[in-house]
Each structure stands twice: as C-alpha cells, then as structure tokens.
Design goal:
The protein is mainly α. It is built from 2 helices and 2 strands. The protein is globular, with a radius of gyration of 13 Å.
Amino acid sequence: MEVDYQPDFEKQRTRYSFCFTCEDCAHFDGETSECLHGYPNEQHRLGYYMSEIRPDTILFCKDFDLA
Ligand code: SF4
C-alpha cells in the first residue's frame, strides 16, 4: 500500500504543533542562523521542510532541545 506521507505529516505537524526544527531548538542562534554546537543544520531548518520541493524524509537532530 502506498502512503501519501507528506500531506499526512503536514496535517499532523500543524494539528499537534509538532516542533522538530532548529528554529524551535534552544541551541539555535537566530541572529546567525547557526547551531550553537556547530552542527551543519541545513536539513534541520524549517525552510528546508517548507520549500516548494519538499524532501521525502525528515532528518531529526538527536541534540534537539525544546527547553
Ligand atoms: S542542536 Fe540540532 S536542532 Fe538544535 S540548533 Fe543544532 S542542529 Fe539544530
């Protein structure tokens, strides 16, 4: 069975206010848009998931901290 994954995720992300990107992480420097731990964060940024051509998968950061 083929699952229409992306639209389902978008609905659930909005409905449950799911936070998983750098912008919601305590280790994110909003002024420089860099990770305070120095991690490459392009694939953890909200813009990556909101782009016109959206990725098929989600890359979760193991150091995400909602604080
Ligand atoms: S710890 Fe991970 S989620 Fe948090 S700012 Fe750094 S790269 Fe982003």
